[in-house]
């Protein structure tokens, strides 16, 4: 044995792109702070925790010498009642990305294929590669939407799981009921379809969306289809990103498989209590969502008025397909005081945040447009 020897790691890990979190804002975020004071790079909720939710979390912190309730029983019961689904169909996890990883552990391995649209949520390629399965990326349409016909065409005997991200991160577009039903009718019943609805509370149907059955609620789609699973999170609309709690709604045996693949005690008691308090404060939280939706409309309309082609967005962010200029735009935003999320060579995603932050984004975009 030589000192150069290292433990043998799975070859599947070679070349995995590391998850790039949205850059943080500079210290002292807020009015009057130095450059890059605002963070619009991770689709977080800019509002601080509601007082009742914070109190619930602080109270739970008083017993963090104990393990949390591993079954998340109280939270599961609360979610089940609200959504009108059996508690056995709910599986909680450390954020919905944690649950997505469990879904892969439960369904896919070497030799298998996982289909998703591209560009979509950055974690999909990473967690797919970790599972050992192969990613099959299906390009978005020119309108930045899922191409569900092409995704159904991409199914082979090796397909085990398909992610449908709606609204899609980072483009904001949502699938419609008709196209989704036609897609599901073509997918074999032994392939799991995951409707990732991390941003569903931000969906507002417009006239165009009403065509083809409108934008579906994944829960209605899941009810009659045992191979459909819905992913939801407390990180976005509910503002609990830092506490890491999300869940799946799935039929047996998928829900049971999620319980098997869960990290034991993964969801802290603080997160569980805060999530319960959030559900009980839903009206106040959804009021905040409404304000963010109003800001989203203002930002998108401002960008459209400047001449940018911004796709309709149903999430708490906007997408600018800036191609080779994406990184430059990100740098210009940062210099002006907001951090956005550039995807090199592709586009820029900017979360809808505080009004002042959104104003800075609009001002940078206006300047940029002049030299476009
Ligand atoms: C589409 C989508 N799904 C899932 C997640 C994961 O969220 P969390 O793990 O915080 O629940 C995100 C976060 O950005 C997302 O954009």
Automatic annotation (TrEMBL):
Region (Disordered): 1-20
InterPro entries per the UniProt record, alphabetical: Aminotrans_II_pyridoxalP_BS, Aminotransferase_I/II_large, ArAT, HisP_aminotrans, HistidinolP_aminotransfase, PyrdxlP-dep_Trfase, PyrdxlP-dep_Trfase_major, PyrdxlP-dep_Trfase_small
Necessary cofactors: pyridoxal 5'-phosphate
This enzyme's EC code(s): 2.6.1.57
Protein name as catalogued: Aromatic amino acid aminotransferase
Catalysed reaction, written as an equation: an aromatic L-alpha-amino acid + 2-oxoglutarate = an aromatic oxo-acid + L-glutamate
PANTHER family linked: HISTIDINOL-PHOSPHATE AMINOTRANSFERASE (PTHR43643:SF3), HISTIDINOL-PHOSPHATE AMINOTRANSFERASE 2 (PTHR43643)
UniProt-listed SUPFAM superfamilies: PLP-dependent transferases (SSF53383)
Keyword Metal-binding: no
Annotated NCBIfam families: hisC, PRK03321.1
Modified residues (N6-(pyridoxal phosphate)lysine): 236
Chain ranges of the Aminotransferase class I/classII large domain: 39-351
Transmembrane helix in keyword set: no
Keywords: Aminotransferase, Pyridoxal phosphate, Transferase
Family: Belongs to the class-II pyridoxal-phosphate-dependent aminotransferase family.
Organism: Streptomyces synnematoformans
Binding partners and assembly: Homodimer.
Pfam families xrefs: Aminotran_1_2 (PF00155)
Free-text function comment from the UniProt entry: Aminotransferase that catalyzes the conversion of aromatic amino acids and 2-oxoglutarate into corresponding aromatic oxo acids and L-glutamate.
């Amino acid at each position: 044995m030589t000192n150069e020897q290292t433990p043998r790691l799975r070859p599947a890990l070679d070349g995995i792109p590391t998850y790039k979190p949205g850059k943080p804002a500079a210290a002292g975020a807020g009015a009057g702070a130095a450059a890059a004071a605002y963070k619009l790079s991770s689709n977080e909720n800019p509002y601080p925790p509601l007082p009742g939710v914070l109190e619930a979390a602080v109270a739970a912190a008083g017993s963090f010498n104990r393990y949390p309730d591993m079954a998340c029983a109280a939270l599961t019961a609360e979610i089940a009642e609200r959504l009108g689904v059996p508690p056995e169909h709910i599986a909680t996890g450390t954020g919905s990305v944690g649950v997505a990883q469990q879904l892969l552990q439960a369904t896919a391995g070497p030799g298998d294929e996982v289909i998703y649209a591209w560009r979509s949520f950055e974690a999909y390629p990473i967690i797919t590669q970790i599972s050992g399965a192969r990613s099959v990326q299906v390009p978005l349409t020119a309108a930045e939407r899922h191409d569900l016909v092409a995704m159904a065409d991409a199914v082979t005997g090796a397909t085990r799981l398909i992610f449908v991200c709606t609204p899609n991160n980072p483009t904001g577009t949502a699938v419609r009921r008709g196209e989704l039903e036609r897609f599901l009718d073509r997918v074999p019943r032994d392939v799991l379809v995951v409707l990732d609805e991390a941003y569903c509370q931000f969906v507002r149907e417009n006239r165009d969306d009403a065509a083809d059955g409108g934008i579906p609620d994944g829960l209605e789609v899941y009810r009659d289809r045992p191979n459909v699973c819905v992913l939801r999170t407390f990180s976005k609309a509910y503002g609990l990103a830092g506490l890491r709690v999300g869940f799946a709604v799935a039929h047996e045996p998928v829900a049971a498989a999620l319980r098997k693949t869960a990290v034991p005690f993964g969801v802290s008691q603080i997160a569980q209590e805060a999530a319960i308090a959030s559900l009980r404060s839903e009206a106040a939280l959804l009021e905040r969502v409404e304000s963010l939706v109003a800001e989203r409309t203002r930002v998108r309309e401002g960008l459209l008025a400047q001449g940018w082609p911004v796709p309709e967005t149903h999430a708490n962010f906007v997408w600018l397909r800036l191609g080779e200029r994406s990184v430059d735009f990100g740098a210009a935003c940062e210099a002006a005081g907001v951090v956005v999320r550039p995807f090199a060579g592709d586009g820029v995603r900017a979360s809808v945040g505080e009004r002042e932050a959104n104003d800075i984004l609009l001002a940078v975009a206006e300047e940029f447009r002049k030299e476009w």
